[in-house]
Amino acid sequence: MRRITKHLLWMFPAALAAGLLSAMVSIAADTSGAKSAPIGPTVKIHRGEQCVEPTEDMRRNHMQHILHQRDKTVHQGIRTKPHSLTNCVDCHADPKTNSVLGQEGFCSSCHEFASVKIDCFSCHTDKRDKNAVAVAPFKGTATSGRKP
Amino acid sequence: MSLSRREFIGIGSAAAAGMALAPGLRLIDLAQARSPDEAVTSLQRWGLLIDINKCHDCDACVTACHEENGVHGHGRPTTDAQWIRKVTLKDQQTGHVQTLPLMCQHCEEPPCVDVCPTGASFKRADGIVLVDKHICIGCRYCMMACPYKARSFVHEDTTDQKPHAPRGKGTVESCTLCVHRVDAGKIPACVEACNKDGNKAMVFGDLKDRSSDISQQLAAGPSTQLRPDLNLNTGVRYRGI
Asked: Which residues of chain A does B158 touch, with a Cβ-Cβ cutoff of 8 Å?
């Protein structure tokens, strides 16, 4: 302790420099923290609160629902609305662009974030049929998930 | 004979169930409009009858088809998709000229289905021959196999497709007999246009239903398949060739 007191005088400038440095680092950390947005895609829901299945199920399994419906439609002519791709687009298209693609499109925003390529819209239209009325028959209680 | 309460109720409910079921039971199912969640069955076979004597110099069917299904060309006639086209026949001896619309003939034994390596080319239970573009790899064997040159390959990126008629680069496509309309209980766009703006040369209907308009017209007069020698039993029949 005594020895430290002895050396305190000449150590002072060094301590000052170190203190300044640490202060600068903490300020830098603060500013970067203020700028960063919460991690995750911006998904805009324009219509209703509830999809054709519970939200959690749709987040994980929407591709299975569409795939299943696709084979039934093409091969067996079953054209029920809820799980059809046209129903997805009719409900989720952006009111301004009428599309599910684009900068803030419902499909593309999440798929770009997850880096998963969508094949659907190389053949199917991404635009809503303006006359179509989308259906969302699921009436159950949605499980609480992350807010989109 | 005395019945217990339980037996009496049992017999009574069985009798009620029998009475309720009996009127709905038939030995042969009637062809009727399908609900959207029912699969197509082979109880029906969709077909077309085209009377060439009534078909004149008009392309209402072609325009209507391409409008209905969003088939747009790129101004390159050799490679642009054609789902239906007008063909002109000329008798070299007499100079007599006829025109007829030609599209997928919806064969009962389709050569395009035989050659498809992936199963993308298939015949639906109700006789409509289609391409499942989800599994089509664009090899174009079916285009080679089709004796009617009915199929087209999509060479370029497509935009502004119709929601009911997806079309994409790298897949083969052809007349679907307007399957989305047929599933909704309507007639194909070409037939509707021919009846409305054209010469009323086309009849659409169920070949297996003896009481349908098309079956009765086929029974009443002569008709022919194109290339009957191939034994494909086409769903599209012509009269007056």
From this structure: 123
Specify if B201 maps to a domain.
Answer: yes
Amino acid at B204: F
φ/ψ region of B239 (left if φ > 0, alpha if ψ in -120 to 50, else beta) reads beta
Which pair of tokens denotes residue A115?
A: 């880096």
Whole-complex ipTM: 0.80
Question: Does any CB of chain A come closer than 8 Å to the CB of residue B156?
Answer: no
Query: The domain containing residue B221 runs over which residues?
Result: 46-239
Residue B15 domain-assigned (yes or no): no
Predicted model pTM: 0.77
Alpha-carbon distance of B202 to B50, in angstroms, equals 5
Report the relative pairing of strands B46-51 and B236-239 from DSSP bridges: parallel
Mutation target vs B (from A124, A126, A130; most B CBs, 10 A cutoff): A124
- How many whole angstroms separate alpha carbon A123 and alpha carbon A125? 7
d(CA A104, CA A41): 9
Task: Assign residue B70 the CATH number of its domain.
Answer: 3.30.70.20
Interface of A with B in 63-122 (CB under 8 A): 70, 72, 74-81, 86, 89, 122
A24-43: pLDDT as tens digits:
444 444 444 445 667 778 78
CA–CA distance, A22 with B222 (Å, rounded to integer): 98
Question: Is B30 among the domain residues?
Answer: no
Is B1 among the domain residues?
no
